[in-house]
User: What shape does this take?
Amino acid sequence: MTDIERDASLNWRDVAAVAQGARLTLSPAARARIGQARTIVETIVARQIRAYGVNTGVGALCDVVVDIPKQRELSRNLLMSHACGVGDPLGTAETRAIIAAQVNNFAHGHSGVRLAVVEQMLALLAGDCSPEVPGRGSVGYLTHMAHIGLVLIGEGTAIHQGARVTGGDALKALGLAPLVLEAKEGLSLVNGTPCATGLASLVLARSRRLLDWADAAAAMSFENLHGQPAAYAAKSLTLRASPGLLTVGERLRALIEGSEILAAAVGKRTQDAISLRAVPHVHGAARDTFDHAAAVVDRELAAVTDNPLVAGTPQAPEVFSQAHAMGAAIGLAMDNLGIAIAEVAAMSERRLDRLVNPLVSGLPAFLAADGGACSGFMIAQYTAVSLVAQNRRLAAPASLDGGVTSGLQEDHLCHATPAAFKALEILDNAERILGLELLATAQAYELQATAARRAPGTDAVYRLMRSAVAPYADDRPLAGDMERARDLVRHTDLGHD
Assistant: This one.
């Protein structure tokens, strides 16, 4: 995997690549910016310039002055008190994505941590060492990043080369010593939007792949159900102004071009059901939502999200207490993208239902070769309905949850990190639903009453499916086939951008 150097800001693709194992390094310019910001913090400390979290408490304790002898203790204690997450730990990819986004934030040169802190984080990434981070308990970002910070100082736990070890043993295995945090470093390690931004980058990577698979599944269902290709005609679709719609229309036309099955069906119906003819409109709207979310995440990665941030020069230091750690844009973007993916998956279930329903499919009931002794995909469609319903519940916006914390100091919350987690859960379900539709389309091809050939585009996807899953004849638990189909959707790139 290609190394990624952080010079200018990372983008979401970079963060997703680091999450999957790419090596992250810092350019000389980025190192210089980090060093300059640290010098400014040291000047602020020496001159006793009031700065939130540097020489004061945090949250509702922001007006309590912390003298120089206590500032190291403040940084350490912030990690200890903020490391209060609960529940199952994050996966390695999620933790790596958060670390990559945090390194990116520090490399802007306005946080004021020492270069040694950033190098320790890079060493964790390079050494296959992932801090163990409980997945629940944060309204924004604090708890997840505190658990990461613990390992930097030799506390907490980590997964190193597959084994669960203490933070101290993890550092020892990497040839590193625990850090002693200086002024501001504890606050910087738990601050900003890197948690939400890192997770959002993974949402984007998986969503992009899923949207490509959704187009392929729709084209295969359309062909199996003998749809009317005029619905995807370029001349018609160009009358609706949507970049995503036009992209999907082009992809669908490429997938079904040359289909003998569809050529034989032309003119046999006036129009098809919405789940077939409105694919460009629904999938296209989802792609437009994806593009907006991608732009938001890239802007967030290009932004400084520390509070406070430092600027100026060592001779004329500046410190700004503001609300840049507020992730409202990420929360709204993830809520919207989650809804879009849920709708794509809901439409997939409707096509699945048409494939298994003999009243509209013209195929054997439930795609079972022996409709008496075999149930085929009957109950699999129930599973898809259940997942669609769960997505509907998950699609309620996290960004409106609200809440009041820290003695009225933090009196508005936008829940950006929960919004990203929620989008990942929706994707889990959507990948399974799409996998089910793809299994059904492959089975349906084999039950067609016609000898007409598939389009080359759909045939290539059919063969890919069959390389992973054999035809189904009620001869094994269907759940195993569903898992293999889900894995294909989650991990296999169809080669489109």
